[in-house]
Amino acid sequence: MPNFRIRAAGKKTAEIYLYDVIGQDWWGGITAKDFAEALKSAGDIDTIKLRVNSPGGDVFDGFAIYNQLARHSARVEVDVDGEAASIASIIIMAADEDPGGGQRHDHDSRPVVLRRREC
User: Fold this and answer.
1) pLDDT tens-place string over residues 33-53
2) Contacts from 69-72 at CB under 8 Å and sequence distance 24+?
3) From CA 7, how far away is CA 14, in angstroms rounded?
């Protein structure tokens, strides 16, 4: 069972809560595979409302989640409810607008180039 929640928030809107570590750890976590299955189960949607409170986690799962959101045809709206640290700060870059609220924490790592979606 994925350690996050996705629910219908209107006729063509899905609300996704990423409130855990990205990737699997001893206590749970959100894997890219579970995220993909949940996103697919949302069906034909026009808007994704992503709510984030995550300390970060596995870089590979994080980039896979970012890419799933960036490639999706729905508009992606992000709110940081608590923190978006480390790889979670990359995931929120899939938003179609600058994410609101919360704290973001980036740290020194190897350089990475991302292309933001066109607004």
Assistant:
1) 999 999 999 999 999 999 999
2) 69/94, 70/94, 70/117, 72/39, 72/48
3) 6
